[in-house]
Amino acid sequence: MKVLTAAQMRDVDRRTVELGIPNIILMENAGQRVVEFLEREYAPLAAQRILVVCGKGNNGGDGLVVARQLYTRVKPQWLRVVVGADPQTMQGDALANYKMLTAVGSRYRLK
Question: At 51, which CATH number?
Fold first, then answer.
């Protein structure tokens, strides 16, 4: 596996979006892979206490995907999501993922 710098990853994301794959799909795929990793490494994941901390930017959007995937697929006994920003300041795909998380009924806590 090749490890990329932050700048290299931004370039890969930009080029992928230019090829026609929307950023929100990249976020969804990344979130799904994180949940799959957690399921492999920390089984049974449903029995774990899980805290997801998110900011208001795109990395926060990735975290919100992880939280939603955990909430809807894994259904852990204890899941908390901390959003370290006022959701009214969120934009773009991060905001879309915040709305999706709240739409499925997940509880969250603000900073």
Answer: 3.40.50.10260
